[in-house]
Amino acid sequence: MKQLSAVPVAPQYIKDFEQLGLGMFVHFGLYSQLRQGEWVKKLRGVPTEEYMALKETFNPVSMAEIVSVGKAAGCKYICLTTRHHDGFSLYDTCGLNDYDAPHALCGRDLVREFVDECRRADIVPFFYHTTLDWYNPDFYERFDDYLVYLRRSVEILCTNYGEIGGLWFDGNWSRKNDDWQEDALYSMIRRLQPSAMIVNNTGLSARGAKGNEYIDSLTYERGLPTPIDRTGMTRYVAGEMCETLNNHWGDADDIDYKPVRQIIEEVCDCRKVGANMLLNIGPAGDGTVPLMARAMMSSVGYWMSIYGKAIYNGRPYLAEVGRRDFILRDIKDGKTFYLFKYDLGSRGDQNVTVASGGDGVVRFDGFAGEVESVAWMDNGQALDFTHEGETLTVACATYPYGQNHCVRVAEIKIK
């Protein structure tokens, strides 16, 4: 008889991460002043001395607005670019160099301000940190020396700001064939921050790839996550998609924003397979958040104020590949499930209502337990259903004219 491979159990800190559900990514640095994206130095060929001079005008008003936008969106964690590929640090590098925020015009440790604002807002702070570096010549000429500098930089983040939610690395894809000495970096983090998530972005070309054994979450950069088969894994890993609101991470002259519907659907698509969603904003050089980004995050927050319980507490239950509608189970309440309905039509007078959406009747096979009720979370309206054997059929009432939440969620109660 063939023995089944065991599925590893998630440690508590990874369970806590999965409970956060929705986070906000923040790409912010010297490049924000130029409004040409976070890669402006590299892609526009800005000379190093000219680029470094940007610190003489870098003076954000505060980190408060950034955090408030995440709070209003229903985000439970925020990941800030403490140092991006340009090598400039928003934190006090404690003598490693003077290419940091305390030596800029602002003269302040912006990571300290960020952490303080997060704690006031009951949001978990995460730190993004580049692993490649366009500023430090050791990255190109003395790689082993550079890795010592990188570890010393990360050590500062792990020791000077209290307990953090995790570290999110990005850049190993720049030197695919080199030894990044990851074990030395990650073991140091685990020693100093035992409950911090360790994430290393595998990039656009390797979404969802499993890296070093210390890694706690697979990354899906601007691509929907897939179900993770953890059978036979030595450690449990979570999943997380990072997504932009437009087509840049840092602030840019880019008004080609994605529809709010797409963003909300992607949040739901992530939770369908048990992954988190990390939505990015690119603040302006003064630390304020562009109007469109604030409006979109506010719209997500409105949706989360209604259905957020299903996002935070929901875990995969009945979700089929190739089918949009799905059901999650509530990890905190064994008698509650959530039905996510996409493409729901609207009803109203034919003179004002444009036909949209599809059939509101959905059927799920394999639903165990005796169903007591099904009702929309937004207004408590009871929905007609039949439950024969393990087949649950629900008549999802269409939206009334003047309402559309992009994805509507019903709460299923069992006896």
Average of pLDDT: 93
End-to-end span in angstroms? 38 Å
User: Whole-number radius of gyration?
Assistant: 23 Å
Number of helices: 10
CATH superfamily of the largest domain: Glycosidases
Strand order of the largest sheet: 5-4-3-2-1-8-7-6
Helical content, roughly?
25-40%
Global structural class: alpha/beta
User: Can you tell me the CATH topology of the largest domain?
Assistant: TIM Barrel
Assigned CATH class of the largest domain: Alpha Beta
Number of beta strands:
18
Query: In this structure, how is the largest beta sheet organized?
Result: 8 strands, parallel
- Uncertain runs are none
Strand content bin: 15-25%
Taken in chain order, the helices and strands follow as HEHHHEHEHHEHEEEHEHEEEEEEEEEE
Q: Estimate nothing, just give the exact number of structural domains.
A: 2
Net shape: globular
CATH architecture of the largest domain: Alpha-Beta Barrel
Question: Can you describe what's shown?
Answer:
The protein is an alpha/beta fold and 415 residues long. The chain folds into two domains: 12-314, Glycosidases (TIM Barrel); 319-414, Immunoglobulin-like (Sandwich), CATH 2.60.40. The protein contains ten helices and 18 strands. The strands form four sheets. Strands 5-4-3-2-1-8-7-6 form an eight-stranded parallel β-sheet. A five-stranded antiparallel β-sheet has the order 9-10-11-18-14. It has a three-stranded antiparallel β-sheet with strand order 13-16-15, with no helix packed on it. Helix 4 crosses helix 10 and helix 9 (260-272) runs parallel beside helix 10 (291-313).
